[in-house]
């Protein structure tokens, strides 16, 4: 009985669906494009500055060594070469980050001591990075 009800429902619903979609034609005219908005003479877009504004401070980048993460290391070296060592500070995490926790803290402390450093990029955080950065926050 249930099977008969389902087939009856399909037989009634299918023609309804087909007739509902029958009015759709593929040859509809495209809507006309609206003209571009008029630009007021009072609004003058700002001209780009002649020279890019320098970042007010230094950026520190901490990466793994070239042996542990060559792409990250080489990218940081390229950034230093492009923007100069006076704007970019590049430091390297120790090879054994578990045993070198104190060295990681020294690296972060050295960055925190430099008041000109306004941004820090840690490219590939390793075990213990959060703890080291918490200590850095305490300093600053």
Your description of this structure?
The protein is flat, with a radius of gyration of 32 Å. Helix 2 (70-83) links the parallel strand 1 (58-63) and strand 2 (88-92). The protein has a three-stranded parallel beta sheet, with helices on both faces. The protein has 140 residues and is α/β, with parallel strands linked by helices. The termini are far apart. The protein has helices spanning 2-20, 70-83, 101-113, 129-139; strands at residues 58-63, 88-92, 117-123. Helix 3 (101-113) runs parallel beside helix 4. 41% of the residues lie in helices and 13% in strands.
Task: Using brief descriptors, characterize the structure shown.
4 helices, 41% helix, alpha/beta, single chain, flat, 13% strand, 140 residues, three-stranded parallel beta sheet, 3 strands
Short note summarizing the structure:
With 140 residues, the protein is α/β, with parallel strands linked by helices.
Count of strand segments: 3
Approximate helicity band: 40-55%
Mean pLDDT: 77
Shape: flat
Structural class: alpha/beta
What composes the largest sheet?
A: 3 strands, parallel
Distance between the termini: 78 Å
What proportion strand?
5-15%
Count of DSSP-assigned helices:
4
Rounded to an integer in angstroms, the radius of gyration calculated over CA atoms is 32 Å
Poorly predicted regions: none
Q: Order of helices and strands, N to C? A: HEHEHEH
Biggest β-sheet: strands ordered side by side in the sheet? 2-1-3
